[in-house]
Amino acid sequence: LSHRSVLSCQRSAGLAAQLAVPALPWLPWSPQLPSCAKDFSLTNEKDAHSSDSDENSERGNWSKKGDYLLSMVGYAVGLGNVWRFPYLTYQNGGGAFLIPYTLMLALAGLPLFFMECSLGQFASLGPVSIWRILPLFQGVGITMVIISAFVTIYYNVIIAYALYYLFASFQKVLPWSDCFSWADEFCSKTRIVSDCNATFGGEIVHANFSVITSHNLTCINGTINYKPVQFPSEQYWNKVALQRSSGLDETGRIVWYLALCLLLSWLIVAAALFKGIKSSGKVVYFTALFPYVILLILLVRGATLEGALDGIEYYIGSQSNITKLMEAEVWKDAATQIFYSLSVAWGGLVALSSYNKFHNNCYSDAILVCVTNCVTSVFAGFAIFSILGHMAFVSKRPVSEVVDSGFDLAFVAYPEALSKLPVSPLWSFLFFFMLLLLGLDSQFASIETLTTTIQDISPRVMKKLRLPVTLGLCAVLFLLGLICVTQAGIYWVNLIDHFCAGWGILISAVLEIIGIVYIYGGNRFIEDIEMMIGKKSCLFWMWWRMCWFFITPVLLMAILVWSLITFSRPTYGSVLYPTWGTAVGWCMIIFCVIWIPIVAIVKIIKAEGNLVQRIVSCCRPAANWGPYLECHRGERYSHIVDSKKKKEHEIPTVTAAVYKEQRI
Fold it and tell me: pTM for this one?
């Protein structure tokens, strides 16, 4: 006979008694304790992921509510808030863009965000195991995890770029502030006139600028043509930082200093996650909050510069164009930005929320994090455009010519603007330190998504070997990322982002909301949420029902179809990708989403009955679906099969590990 010692909380008597419950092999059932009893068996190893104060002693919980909220804010607020949103706002009508942006937040972003937070918290499971709710769609969870793995590979490369520029800022003169020895003849800090029209002998003549100046003539306004020149920051980015090759065909060598920065970034991630949420939950108090301090410093400094007002006018002021709202492209950009900015359908929201206590108010959390994310985007725009406005003033060019997005904003336009400020190394350090922190926050959550998946598959392994598993995972992802720090590395980063971070996430999101609302049942899901946050009125749920049942799925489908229709071959700047490069991109996205039909077919094959019965069976929740702890199940889930004893309709991950049914 095997024995285990269990401490049962006797609430009525207020006493704790230590009971020895024998597991009798001749009985068809095992004695169950009715309350939230913590297991203190002699065989229970202590995990750094959990503590004595945790409600869920096996998986662990967040130490404080603040740990969770800041982790969620850090995950949602990323590089896109700084280098994409301000440019989209400027491009799509300035302040007028905030109207579709806010509407898309309410109609598409927030409903999906609230759904994922509630889902993870209710079952205390990661993005793969959570699909006990609908076994037929478990491939959706696998797709989310694989896409997150792809994204972590290149996202840490971007963090490595920020680290490199951070270290390069520790110089008296910024290395990209002028055309130094690495520059070519096209490098110039100012625009160079090529030719123009001038008045000579009473006639208008067209001549090279050298001829014009040699005859002391003056160019006629509006007739000046400029030579194609590049700013020092652009040439530094391509020639020094990246050592960029001519295309994807020319891999070149590994850029050793970028490889070292990549290694350092993975060491930082591993150090922050060595105890899972217990350690990362403390790190985010700095990494999630300090970027706001830096943004405020940059905004105050930028607002005091000449030309700053011109930049802000272009961003959200009098240059706003309300007629832009008549263009479908503007609404598509607003919906896409909200969708990707909130990090929905990546699996991270489910993973982070799975460590909440059962009765945590996930509704207010979702509202707070979403609003914070959007306010941050708007706030960052002021900091970016005030300094870009000054750059335009100094270089005597319109703001529209110095504004950019993505890599060109973060590593070309903004560094160029900062190099024109007094004490430029200080401002450069602050900016790239902010990029580093914004990237690390999101990376912490992405890696936690992967480790949570492993935790759900093999809890015993994670209890004993959390540190080796985390280090091993980071090491593997570092090795996979080395291709992205070769001379062709930027092309690989752009390729993965173009394919994996696009359609795969949209497909996952559409299937997720359709599966939960239309197959599992939207009203049934609402009852699950009310078990956590309490009973709410019909009026309270009216908005969420409208979004979940109709508006959000339609918007997501529209974005997906639009993306497919407007698809174009990937490019980086003016460099076209070879055919084989595009084929590799298609292979990556197919590898991500192929698990959705594969897992569905496996589920149907493993079910019993005829084809219709099998499909119906796989569309019902698994026998072990419900709240993780017995004390939270109530009458609605009193029938649940203990997940430790039976895992029906569940294949864990692509590792093809198979759960064996334990028989008593």
Answer: 0.87
